[in-house]
Amino acid sequence: xxxxxxxxxxxxxxxxxxxxxxxxxxxxxxxxxxxxxxxxxxxxxxxxxxxxxxxxxxxxxxxxxxxxxxxxxxxxxxxxxxxxxxxxxxxxxxxxxxxxxxxxxxxxxxxxxxxxxxxxxxxxxxxxxxxxxxxxxxxxxxxxxxxxxxxxxxxxxxxxxxxxxxxxxxxxxxxxxxxxxxxxxxxxxxxxxxxxxxxxxxxxxxxxxxxxxxxxxxxxxxxxxxxxxxxxxxxxxxxxxxxxxxxxxxxxxxxxxxxxxxxxxxxxxxxxxxxxxxxxxxxxxxxxxxxxxxxxxxxxxxxxxxxxxxxxxxxxxxxxxxxxxxxxxxxxxxxxxxxxxxxxxxxxxxxxxxxxxxxxxxxxxxxxxxxxxxxxxxxxxxxxx
Length: 385
Prior knowledge:
Elements: H1 4-22, H2 34-68, E1 73-78, E2 105-110, H3 117-128, H4 137-155, H5 161-174, H6 176-187, H7 203-232, H8 236-239, H9 250-287, H10 321-326, H11 330-366, H12 370-384
Antiparallel strand pairs: 1-2
Transmembrane segments: 35-58, 137-158, 164-189, 210-233, 253-274, 343-366
Keywords: Membrane, Transmembrane, Transmembrane helix
């Protein structure tokens, strides 16, 4: 998610830059209507909110449930609760005695809930209400702001860009228990407890158990996040954005959009190859530490096929990293991959719609003045760097 304060700050800077440009004494400068700039800014804000909502519900919440759910769901339904068909034979003989071969239950075998995005949202809504598609959002926001604070504190003393990567990994490891709390909140049935009351205890003992899995996940997350930016930012238009003499126009705007698409495709590839295995292992290790009193909102095998041993009889009370990935069998991996592809398609479609709308608005609202808008944003990018 994009921090709201950072986006608002950039929006104010853009507005100030546009205002200063309009007040310049250059007689041939194209004037940018303030109302047009406001519409353009509100369009960007609306699409970023939409992308953030899609990313949280489908990219974080549902994919996490998919990593936890068992490969198949078995539901045992009493015969008395099932309406018999009109032509079905009677379940009892004429004298009232049950038939000799009658069974007390029917076994109904269904596909996993998370096999369908729509079915998962409907299941969450039925179990926890409409806003369940954003369940765990409060602890997720706290976790992100705490992570940003720790990263800012650790990287403030150094100008080396790699110091922020190191700081991010340290922050993820330090906040591992809060991350695990978020996983517990979203995979379990609704609880009357506040999220901070569900932080696992004893704190340090639990932290030591989850840290190895979180450390691997944190490193892969930085690779997936930083590498595409480094690659896309070192060629073409984006490489020249720090040149004070560079004056981008409409053609450069299209080139920038193309580079952003390339960066997105590279991010998706790295996500599938690196981050999915690391995330699956971390989520399943955290799920194995879910307190006994909490029931999961999707079918979940707490024993991982007998790979875990409760602490009360001398076990660790959690699954290992390697076992967490191996217990996620081929059927589960294919289901998760299909889910990731669906989510990527939704995000790409939304991004294409966003780019199309922005380009149409740029032509209709700004016309030749769009170059001035690009120059204003170019100057803000230089000052921000």
